[in-house]
Amino acid sequence: MRLLSRAVRSAARQREWSRRHFWGWLNAVFNKVDYERIKAVGPDRAAAEWLLRCGAKVRFQGFDRWQHDYNGLPTGVLGKYKIQAIDATESCIMYRGFDHLDGLEHVEEIKFNKSIYVEDTCLERLSSIGNLQESLNTMEVVSCGNVTDKGLVALHRLKNLEHLFLRDLPGIKDRQTTVDRLQTALPRLDLSLDLD
Length: 196
Fold this sequence. Notes:
The protein has 7 helices and 6 strands, in the order H-H-H-E-E-E-H-H-E-H-E-H-E. The protein has helices at about 1-30, 35-40, 45-55, 120-125, 130-135, 150-155, 175-185, and strands at about 55-60, 85, 110-115, 140, 165, 190-195.
């Protein structure tokens, strides 16, 4: 009986691992960058497709409503629709797909809420993109367990960042030093914290 019990537990663990492995693989596929697609449809359209495919939402310039339906993406003249805001709440975006952000010139706001694949390398990559250094002024990082002090400090390169909201980030170990470094580099930054 004990042998049967062990076999059943082992099979259940194997099945759970297989399920997680499958979803991890699928999320990685969704994040793969297709550089030919970016050339064909432009950076904003390609980035919108990537974000929506991964469960995020985008808002285009001149629109009040968020676009969340991949099949409902606006069509028209190439380059007409520019992404103004990104809401990656509970999405599967990961570092692998951040090359999609390279050509975006009008993004003013980004939200990472419960984005389980967002980590320090994502924030470092985001803050190294020249266009975003100029355009991004509002950012939210909430309940992203893989973000540490290192990732937040990298945000100092976003020179026009005016509003940063941080909450529920267990990877932050040296809160005061991180805050001081950000505020020194970005004196206009309105930093809202709820890290306790």
